[in-house]
Amino acid sequence: MVIGIIGLGEVGSRFAAGLTRAGHAEIFGYDPHIHIGGTREKEVRLRESGVRLLQTPQELAQRMDVLIAVMSCEIAYRTAAQFAEFLHPGQHYLDLSSAVPARKMEIASLIAQSGAHFLDGGILNSPEVLWEKTPVVLSDPDAAAVAGGLNACGMHIRALGCEIGQASGLKILRSIFAKSLEALLLEAYTAAEAYGVLPEVQQALLDMFAREAVAPMFERMVATDAVHALRRAREIESMAQMLETDNLDSTMSRAAAKKLYWSANSGMKQAFAAHIPTDYRAVVRYLENYQKSSRQA
Fold first, then answer.
1. Alpha helices (H) in 95-213, listed in sequence order
2. Each residue of 184-242: pLDDT tens digit?
3. Strands 135-139 and 2-6
4. Distance, CA of 199 to CA of 179 (rounded, Å)
5. Is the pLDDT of residue 271 over 80?
6. What are phi and psi of 23, to 5 degrees?
7. Which of 36, 76, 143, 144 is most open to solvent, judged by the fewest CB atoms within 10 Å of its CB?
8. Burial class (CB in 10 A: 0-12, 13-18, 19+), 7
9. Beta strands, E only, the chain
10. What is the percent of the chain with per-residue pLDDT over 90, rounded to a whole number?
């Protein structure tokens, strides 16, 4: 298999070097900021790892079996447009950017005009440790076959559904949690530093996750929201007020209070007769139906 990596940043360069090292495919790379004769450390490192660098989209597009695009979401469509005119039937174009599903569909339409085959993808972890073995999901009717071929070359790809948007949707929803957790830690740790209790707060959080496995903890948090959303909203609102009184940022605390008030106002506590459901998915389904009916109203 001949694989072309579009974008040789932190992700693409590790994919390219890792696949080259695995030795089961020919690996070429293109990045507008990488020069074949350049002397920057990254360029030298890529050449030393055996990655063959090409100068233009046309050079890369015309000789590849599979193209893997790992450009940023802001330029994913523009990148696809640069390559689309040079693609041909029989090729696969995998977009692993963090673009939203609607944007992936636009890119798919663009690639389809060339006769090449588009697959929606999402990268589920940082490649800093796992390199080409970083978990990736693909969605498309042919996702399983393409994943099998790339896994034989050294990658770690799982087929996820047949529709464009499923893989990128998973990636984005996962990112909502990860980025929000980062923002929560920034707010909590900064406030803890201001109050002189940062080590104690960090240890308390670590102890909380050490006491209970993550999966049942998450399920319990969601299930108990059916009964306790209003009380929790009021508690976090008072904490936000405390931060504001001390001129500390309360962005995430305010957002959490708003979300919990939204849940409390959904009528869920009455619907469950003030009993905590045994299955957290009952809460999720109730709130999704509430959301749907609110949009239709």
1. 101-112, 127-130, 143-152, 166-194, 198-211
2. 999 999 999 999 999 999 999 999 999 999 999 999 999 999 999 999 999 999 999 99
3. unpaired
4. 22
5. yes
6. 80, 15
7. 36
8. buried
9. 2-6, 26-30, 52-53, 66-69, 92-95, 117-123, 135-139, 156-159
10. 87
